[in-house]
Design goal:
Ribosomal Protein L15, Chain: K, domain 2; 3-stranded parallel β-sheet; 26% helix
């Protein structure tokens, strides 16, 4: 037996019924949609419609909101940085910034940069250049002999520059 010989058992998959193809097919005329009304017509979409009653998604109380101005940071913990340095995926001698972390596969996403968090511990002297860092992370890095430089996100800086030129 070969892979290209493998087939489903006979009757395992049922074919699609072609409706509206004449009275002799048994599914002609109304094409199994019953008589008249909205659902017998084409282009109907009644998801969530409850016949005029207030729909469930409108009856349930709502909570929270999505902040359109929230910054999107890729969060990186010190423990993971230490693990990547031990595995030789990151070079502690060079400055560890967003590009280095993304190249190593540690920081994913984060349109506004990387934020360093203090979970885990770091034992290597390393210099970080990130968009944000927690107090605990900064303390842990400095305790190990390294430094943390917090820089503004590149997009925010470039977005403010044209506004300054327009006012002059």
């Amino acid at each position: 037996m070969k892979l290209n010989d493998i087939r489903d058992n006979a009757g395992a998959r049922k074919g699609r019924m072609r409706v509206g193809r004449g009275i002799g097919s048994g599914k002609g005329k109304t094409a199994a949609r019953g008589q008249k009304g909205q659902k017998s017509r084409s282009g109907v979409a009644v998801k969530g419609f409850e016949g005029g009653q207030m729909p469930l998604h409108m009856r349930i109380p709502k909570r929270g909101f999505n902040n359109p101005f929230a910054k999107d940071f890729a969060e990186v913990n010190l423990g993971m940085v230490q693990k990547f340095i031990d595995a030789k995926k990151l070079d502690a001698k060079k400055v560890i910034d967003q590009e280095a972390l993304q190249a190593a596969g540690l920081a994913r996403g984060g349109k506004d940069g990387v934020r360093l968090l203090g979970k885990g511990e770091i034992t290597v002297k390393a210099n970080f250049k990130v968009a944000g860092a927690s107090k605990g992370a900064v303390a842990a890095v400095e305790k190990a002999g390294g430094s943390v430089e917090v820089v503004a996100p590149a997009k925010a800086a470039s977005a403010e520059a044209p506004a300054a030129e327009a006012t002059e």
